[in-house]
Design goal:
heterodimer, A: 113 residues, mainly beta, six-stranded mixed β-sheet, B: mainly beta, four-stranded antiparallel β-sheet, 0% helix, 47% strand
């Protein structure tokens, strides 16, 4: 069974600092990995999706890397802003026919002004 | 495009009561999903529907039933609510379950916060 872990559970940084969020998974045979943002009391917003054949994906200030062999993905957020305060979740899909996403519990980020 | 919508946003039930959570998507997606989110845990899949007319169990289906009413709508029913079903429920959809991106990218609704007393 795929286990997805996100450490730390919470993170507080001053505005302007770069954020580094970690996601690890136990079964390296994944199909893709997706990063989500969740604001308090809200649903999930997809940020980036990385296919297993890719090493990274970028969108604006966000960059996600994937190292399948070591079972890790990292989400980098450059020059953090108070508006980046949210919970960030990663989820993996096991195979192309797999219906299920396996989620981590998330990292809650606070960016201090 | 409204994306994925869910009703109600909040609900309080007493143990033993029943209710149906509604979900609709306007993205013409084939596949739809119901998840629950509990504190300190990742989202867990309750049921999913790969396409209109089909439904299958996920990780935690006990105590729930689903109906894929048409391509747009996928409802989740609690027949006899229990305190252990207190959670936040999310509906999601994707173009389909299989294949490469963007076909299997899931889009989520805002959630229903359910409390069972």
């Amino acid at each position: 069974k795929q286990e997805v872990t996100q450490i730390p559970a919470a993170l507080s940084v001053p505005e302007g600092e770069n954020l580094v969020l970690n996601c690890s998974f136990t079964d390296s045979a994944i199909y893709n990995l997706q990063w989500f943002r969740q604001d308090p009391g809200k649903g999930l917003t997809s940020l980036l999706l990385i296919q297993s054949s890719q090493r990274e994906q970028t969108s604006g200030r966000l960059n996600a890397s994937l190292d399948k062999s070591s079972g890790r993905s990292t989400l980098y957020i450059a020059a953090s802003q108070p508006g980046d305060s949210a919970t960030y979740l990663c989820a993996v899909k096991g195979s192309s026919n797999d219906y299920k996403l396996s989620f981590g519990a998330g990292t809650t980020v606070t960016v201090r002004a | 495009n409204a994306g994925v919508t869910q009703t109600p946003k909040f609900q309080v039930l007493k143990t033993g009561q029943s209710m149906t959570l509604q979900c609709a998507q306007d993205m013409n997606h084939n596949s739809m999903y119901w998840y629950r989110q509990d504190p300190g845990m990742g989202l867990r899949l309750i049921y999913y529907s790969a396409s209109e007319g089909t439904t299958d169990k996920g990780e935690v289906p006990n105590g729930y039933n689903v109906s894929r009413l048409n391509k747009r709508e996928f409802s989740l029913r609690l027949e006899s609510a229990a305190p252990s079903q207190t959670s936040v429920y999310f509906c999601a959809s994707s173009p389909r379950t299989s294949g490469g991106a963007p076909y299997n990218e899931q889009f989520f609704g805002p959630g229903t916060r359910l409390t069972v007393l």
